[in-house]
Amino acid sequence: MAIINFSRINGTFCTLRGELLYPQLSKEGDIIVGGILPFHSRWEVTDLSYLVKPPPAKCMSLDFRAFQFSQSLIYAIEEINNNSSLLPGVSLGYKIYDSCSSTAIGVRMAMALVNENENAVLDEPCTKPAQVQAIVGETYSSVSMAIASSIGPFSIPV
C-alpha cells in the first residue's frame, strides 16, 4: 500500500511510501470515474511468517461477470463522451482496479484512487483534490461497505 507522508519543515510536501498501484483499465479525462470490481474471484493464500514483508496477493480464477460490468462502465462513459449535448467541453475518464474479491485489496484500491499514487511526484505540494469524483464498484456488499467506510471522510460517493 502506498502511503503519503507529510513534512512541514520547509512546507507541505508529499513522499510516496510503498508500491505504486496501477489500474487494470484506464483512460484519461477531465473528470475521472473510479471503478473497483472483482475481476478475480479468489486469491492465493501465502504463508505469513511476519519475518519478511509478504508478497502481493496473487489473484486467481477470472470472473467474466465482473469483466462484463467493467465493459458496461466503459461503454457508458464512451457514450457520454461521444454525445456533445450531455457534457459539452468535458471528457470523462476512468480508472478501474481489480479487488480480487478481497475486502483488504478493495480498500487498498480505493485509497489508490483517492491518493492518485501512480502520478505522485516527490516534493509536490499535498494540496491536490481527490483524483476521482465517484467510485463505481464492488459487486460484494461486504467489500463495498468497507470501501465506503474508508473513503467516507473524503466525501467521494460509492
SSE diagram, text form:
Layout: E1 3-7, E2 13-17, E3 25-27, E4 31-37, E5 40-44, E6 58-62, H1 64-82, E7 92-98, H2 103-115, E8 134-137, H3 141-151
Parallel strand pairs: 4-7, 4-8
Antiparallel strand pairs: 1-2, 3-7, 5-6
Helix pairs in contact: 2-3
Alpha carbon gap, first and last residue:
20 Å
- In spatial order, strands of the major sheet run 3-7-4-8
Residue-averaged pLDDT: 80
How does the major sheet shape up?
4 strands, mixed
What is the N-to-C order of secondary-structure elements (H for helix, E for strand)?
EEEEEEHEHEH
Provide a brief overview of the structure:
Helices cover 27% and strands 26% of the residues.
Write out key terms for the chains shown.
158 residues; alpha/beta; 4-stranded mixed beta sheet; two-stranded antiparallel sheet; 3 helices
Description of the structure:
With 158 residues, the chain is α/β, with parallel strands linked by helices. It contains three helices and eight strands; from the N terminus they run E-E-E-E-E-E-H-E-H-E-H. Strands 3-7-4-8 form a four-stranded mixed beta sheet, sandwiched between helices. Strands 1-2 form a two-stranded antiparallel ribbon. The two termini are 20 Å apart.
